[in-house]
Design brief:
- The protein has a single domain, classed as Spore Coat Polysaccharide Biosynthesis Protein SpsA, Chain A (Alpha-Beta Complex), CATH 3.90.550.
- Helix 2 links the parallel strand 4 and strand 5.
- It is globular, with a radius of gyration of 18 Å.
- It is an alpha/beta fold and 257 residues long.
- It binds cytidine-5'-monophosphate.
- Cytidine-5'-monophosphate (C5P) binds next to helix 3.
């Protein structure tokens, strides 16, 4: 996407909510996942920079671990962020709120903190620190064009099986079905929403969900997919940290990121 086709800062007011309150147990013992370092910088700071890199995003709401809001606030203060003169704040504002016990609750707490003027909301996992700005802009553009909910997603490389989950981990599991891979997509973030729709979804849907768009689906409203990006992968397991470091090292070599 060229610079000219990017959503402009003067368009519909757009905010990003970053749930960053998870412990990240699958990554192994240590600090909350969002606060682990990548290339010497906390993963959360990369995620915040990725949202603020979009000219359209003028507010980033970070949802911190329930007992870590002060620590996260000082981390944001300590890192120069895009558009900001060194050590200062530029055209993107930041808010930090304490999170909840589930991702869903954390997102809801972030939404509760949004000032009324924001009409488009992105929800972005802190655990996807390297999403390129073009993906962020493509999501915003599709919401501006009228979709109530937009998700970036990629086709699957692996064939997927539905199984009857075993009671004991490691036990053989019977296969129930093999969905047609060509109709499946692996969904990433940021997911983009018309603000009123997302708020209604969070007020209405109480089932446990793993992404926000599925709550909008449960309202019976359309959700559309735009192309995702390989570098928007979620840092979940130790190997993902190795991959993330490699992506960062390549960016530093090619564009001094
Ligand atoms: O656990 P999972 O990897 O799906 O978490 C996705 C995102 O949701 C992470 O950025 C994590 O920090 C966040 N999260 C949260 N509050 C929770 C659980 C997860 O903000 N209680």
């Amino acid at each position: 996407m060229s610079d000219d086709s990017r959503p402009s800062p003067t368009g519909v007011p757009t905010a990003a909510v970053i749930p960053a309150a998870g412990r990240g147990v699958r990554l192994g013992p240590g600090a909350p996942k969002a606060l682990r370092a990548l290339g010497g910088t906390p993963m959360l700071i990369h995620a915040v920079r990725a949202m603020a890199a979009s000219r359209a995003v003028s507010l980033v709401v970070v949802v911190a671990p329930p007992d870590g809001a002060a620590e996260v606030k000082s981390l944001l203060d300590a890192h120069a962020l895009p558009g900001a003169p060194s050590g200062g704040r530029g055209s993107t504002d930041f808010l930090v709120v304490p999170g909840g016990y589930s991702r869903q609750e954390s997102v809801k707490l972030g939404l509760d903190a949004l000032p009324p003027e924001y009409e488009i909301v992105l929800v972005h996992d802190a655990a996807r620190p390297l999403v390129p700005v073009d993906t962020v802009d493509a999501v915003i553009e599709a919401v501006r064009e009228g979709a109530p909910a937009v998700v970036p997603a990629l086709p699957l490389a692996d064939t997927v099986k539905e199984v009857e989950p075993a009671d004991t981990p490691g036990e053989a599991e019977p296969v129930v079905a093999t969905p047609d891979r060509s109709r499946l997509r692996a969904v990433q973030t940021p997911q983009g929403f018309d603000r009123a729709t997302l708020i209604r979804a969070h007020e209405t849907v109480t089932d446990n969900v793993t992404d926000d768009a599925s709550m909008v689906e449960q309202l019976g409203l359309p959700v559309v997919v735009v192309p995702g990006h390989a570098e928007a992968f979620k840092v979940t397991r130790p190997l993902d940290l190795v991959l993330a470091e490699a992506v960062l090292a390549r960016r530093r070599m090619t564009d001094g990121f």
